[in-house]
Amino acid sequence: MKAMVLHAPHEPLRLEERPNPVAGPGEIVVRVEACAVCRTDLHVVDGDLTEPKLPLVPGHEIVGIVESVGVGGALAPGRRVGIPWLGHTCGCCGYCQTGRENLCDNPGFTGYTRDGGFASHVVADEAYAFPLDGFSDPVAAAPLMCAGLIGWRSLKMAGEGKRIGIYGFGAAAHIIAQVCVFQGREVYAFTRTGDEAAQALARSLGAVWVGSSQESPPVPLDAAIIFAPVGDLVPAALRAVAKGGRVVCGGIYMSDIPQFPYSILWGERQILSVANLTRADAIEFLELAPRAGVTTTTTVYPLEKANEALDDLRAGRFQGAAVLVP
Ligand SMILES: [Zn+2]
Ligand SMILES: [Zn+2]
Q1: HSE (CB half, 13 Å, CA atoms) of 170?
Q2: CATH code of 117's domain
Q3: If you measure from the C-alpha of residue 88 to the centroid of ligand 1, how many angstroms do you get, rounded to a whole number?
Q4: Tally of structural domains, the chain
Q5: pTM for this structure?
Q6: Residue limits of the Alcohol dehydrogenase-like N-terminal domain (predicted)?
Q7: How many whole angstroms from 254 Cα to the centroid of ligand 1?
Q8: Is the same domain home to 194 and 208?
Q9: How far away, in angstroms, is 225 Cα from ligand 1 center?
Q10: In this predicted model, what pLDDT tens digit does every residue of 90-129 receive, in sequence order?
Q11: Rounded distance, CA 287 to CA 292, Å?
Q12: Ligand closest in space to the Cα of 229
């Protein structure tokens, strides 16, 4: 098999040949068809997330075909599956036992503490892979596996309000905006100043208002979701939400949040973060996405160009999601 491998933070990934993997008990070997590139991969490569296994194959938005199944496995070879960030949980900690496996004390994360999908093949714990029988296009489905799933969990955390602000209009936002429209909500899209391509994408997906993150929306929002890793957006979003409104931080990493006056939190406004996902989130979202007619905007790179895809994500050079194809 071939893989793009990280040996140390801040270094480019290296293309390597490795022996073909073997599925252990409860595991599957999957031939990767597509793996989307997430901002979290950038935070791993750039050393913002400090505990990756090394060397590491990044990538946690994997779509592929089951090639072999370990002892006791139930998934049949030939079946298309998706493999997300949540790669394993302990099943016995207090969080796992109360339906909050996303907060597990002893988790495994695909492309961070386990090898991921920037490769031709990946080994996964079968219990954390999801059949994608209804999804015929692996490239289009790949961004659903994190941008979609984390976006969905973020939207659930935002509550039932009608007016939803989205800060940072990248891969997660472009998926979740479509879900909001499907649910009859109004999307207020905030982008970097002058990012006309992102603003056009937001408008095309049904946003009722599009502006820069410096601007105030025309009406107070019921909730705001921040996908950009920019702490300055937290006070901006607090100022944009109405009394009782929630500000949901959807990323795994964010720059420091500046000091702000208590008055903008007052009125039972809340700030929340979203950590990882549960398998229940994935089952819900993968059922909802086709019903909501979610489509993804993708830019395809050959696997060997993973470094270029990461650079382009860092620089904001494409809309939607980058997807690697082996
Ligand atoms: Zn646990
Ligand atoms: Zn991700």
Answers
A1: 26
A2: 3.90.180.10
A3: 9
A4: 2
A5: 0.95
A6: 24-132
A7: 25
A8: yes
A9: 27
A10: 999 999 999 999 999 999 999 999 999 999 999 999 999 9
A11: 9
A12: 2
